[in-house]
Write a structure and sequence with these properties.
The complex is a heterodimer of chains A (162) and B (404). Helix content of chain A is 22%, strand content 27%. Chain B has a single domain, classed as Cytochrome-c3 Hydrogenase, chain B (Orthogonal Bundle), CATH 1.10.645. Classes of the chains: A alpha/beta (162), B mainly alpha (404).
Chain lengths: 162, 404
């Protein structure tokens, strides 16, 4: 399978929703509109043999207009090709269609992404925090929550044995 | 799930009015080998539903990694699957090398294969012997632990540490294999087959063990793929996906080895697949050691290769460059990569988005255990509690990797 044929097939089907394509990265990378992601992944799985969801994770670019991103890594096990899909949503409307009906394995990956970035996966069967405590009221991997300054000196370290 | 309704008189003869009991298994339970909580809904001895709670040892590795220089992230990877940390370390170094575009020579590749396969042996030994323990056969566990100890002694010889190894460097190793290390590997490879044979005699065709494991916690190939299974668990279900073969890294394509697959995806198949992989790993270590080419043990990455320790302690320039490397005053190219290695329990992936600074902009670990453990409720529904324990130990879920 050549990337050009795949790209053409996708462009025929989804038209302008394929925002950009890049084959200079380690593998084929597509940026697509967030509203077609479920149909796109379903299409890739059913008709292009991308039967394996390798990874799903979030990312945050505070300087972009659509700040939050979700990155999908799919694997075509038949031809041993990988593909990376990216979508971006705004912080105010972080709704993305859940792909749990397509890949059961996306369940916890989406919960993790929700936990750390606050992406709202619409249609997820059980969207709640997974690694952090339930009463946490922010999404810690967003860039506005920096790690503690390692040089700060206002803390009383006696209690920590330091 | 039914709850008790106080207004109705209980009549357990009617199926639809059956009352299920809730059983809390974990978070710290001797049979779960780590901090896992499962809230089981039981119908007598049969499990009708399960919900897992994870995250008890979450340490925010991905967030911490966003401020750490690349070298300091190696120590985080140690603590993912701590039963085979060298694979994680080398996987991370391979990812950084891909980012920097570094080529390594054959000697480094073969040395890495030796270390990674030793780690795989250690990991599989634990997992398989623990399946024995959970089915009531403690002997094998105690027996193979001596071999695992020998592998840990080899780690000690290679890098000084045992569990959290921080082994190797970007572009290769910090030092060559010493004569003692090579001798220790040879000794291990000489003694291990005999031990493994005896271990197999204890369990492989043992009637009790077979009765306890066959058709226990089975999953079909289709479901396993849908759930994102990788590693021995996927291969036990009958899919021959192995990163070492599909996308050979570190010159794995120079070697001839078998990727064993199972049929039913049950506990027994997972055991057998791991057992066969142990033999293949022994073969790989022997082959790599025998054909170990001459050459340098580190690639030409002066910006990442630390100077020898004696120079660091006695000369000015090596001290400066060592300091700069450890503190991460080096820029990496702006790039994003995904690099996967075959960890002992599945595809361990590193997704790195580098924006040119001293630390990654975003680092995501694809942790195989995190992804396949979510199939656990589906695998144990309908089975007995004692079978669920066996299923869990045969899945090789490691708490450190699960919670990152």
């Amino acid at each position: 399978m050549e990337y050009n044929t795949l790209l053409q097939a996708l462009k025929d089907k989804f038209g302008d929703s394929i925002l950009s394509a890049d084959d200079t990265a380690d593998f084929f990378t597509l940026v697509v509109a967030s509203d077609i992601i479920k149909q796109l992944i379903s299409f890739l799985k059913e008709e292009q043999n991308f039967i394996f969801l390798t990874d799903l994770c979030g990312i945050h670019y505070p300087e972009q207009e659509k700040e939050l991103g979700v990155i999908y890594h799919l694997h075509n096990l038949v031809e041993n090709k990988r593909i990376r899909l990216k979508i971006f949503v705004t912080k105010a409307n972080p709704q993305v269609d859940s792909i749990v009906p397509i890949f059961s394995g996306a369940n916890w990956m989406e919960r993790e992404t929700f936990d750390f970035y606050g992406i709202d996966f619409v249609g997820h069967p059980n969207l709640k925090r997974i690694l952090n405590v339930d009463f946490m009221d922010y999404h810690p991997m967003r860039k506005e929550y920096p790690l503690e300054d390692a040089t700060r000196s206002d803390k009383d370290d006696r209690f920590f044995g330091r | 799930m039914k709850t008790i309704n106080s207004e109705h008189h209980l009549d357990l003869t009617k199926e639809d009015e059956k009352v299920f009991s809730t059983l809390n298994l974990g978070p710290t339970h001797p049979a779960t080998h780590g901090i896992f909580q499962n809230i089981l809904t039981m119908n007598g001895e049969t499990i009708v539903g399960a919900e897992q709670t994870i995250g008890y040892i979450h340490r925010a590795f991905e967030k911490i990694a966003e401020r750490r220089p690349y070298y300091q992230i190696t120590t985080l990877t140690d603590r993912l699957n701590y039963c085979s940390s060298p694979i994680n370390n080398i996987g991370w170094h391979l990812a950084v090398e891909k980012l920097l575009g570094v080529e390594t020579n054959k000697r480094i590749d073969y040395m890495r294969i030796i270390v990674m396969e030793l780690a795989r042996i250690a990991d599989h030994l634990i997992c398989n012997s623990v399946i024995g323990v959970d089915s009531g056969a403690l002997t094998g566990f105690v027996y193979v632990f001596e071999e695992r100890e020998k592998i840990y002694e080899i780690y000690e010889e290679l890098c000084g540490a045992r569990l959290t190894t921080n082994l190797g460097r970007v572009g290769g190793f910090d030092r060559d294999f010493t004569a003692v290390a090579i001798q220790k590997i040879r000794d291990l490879m000489k003694g291990l087959p005999k031990v493994l044979h005896e271990f197999e005699k204890l369990l492989m065709r043992n009637r009790i063990f077979m009765d306890r494991t066959i058709n226990v916690g089975a999953i079909s190939a289709e479901r396993a793929l849908n759930y994102g299974f990788t590693g021995p668990n996927l291969r036990a279900a009958g899919v021959d996906y192995d990163v070492r073969v599909q996308e050979p890294y570190s010159s794995y394509n120079d070697f001839d080895f078998v990727v064993p697959i199972g049929q039913n995806g049950d506990t027994y198949d997972r055991y057998c697949v791991r057992q066969t992989e142990l033999w293949e790993s022994i073969k790989l270590v022997n082959n790599a050691l025998e054909n170990l080419p001459e050459g340098k043990f580190n690639a030409e990455v002066p910006a990442f290769f630390m100077p020898p320790k004696e120079d660091v302690y006695s000369k000015m320039e090596p001290l400066i460059s060592h300091f700069k490397m450890v503190m991460g005053e080096i820029d990496v190219p702006e790039k994003e990569i995904y690099e996967a290695v075959e960890g002992a329990n599945g595809e361990l992936g590193f997704y790195v988005v580098a924006n040119g600074g001293r630390s990654p902009y975003r680092l995501h670990f694809r942790r195989p255990g995190f992804i396949y453990y979510q199939a656990f409720p589906e695998m144990i529904t309908g089975s007995a509690l004692s079978d669920a324990i066996l299923t869990m130990s045969s899945m090789n879920v490691i708490a450190g990797e699960l919670d990152a």
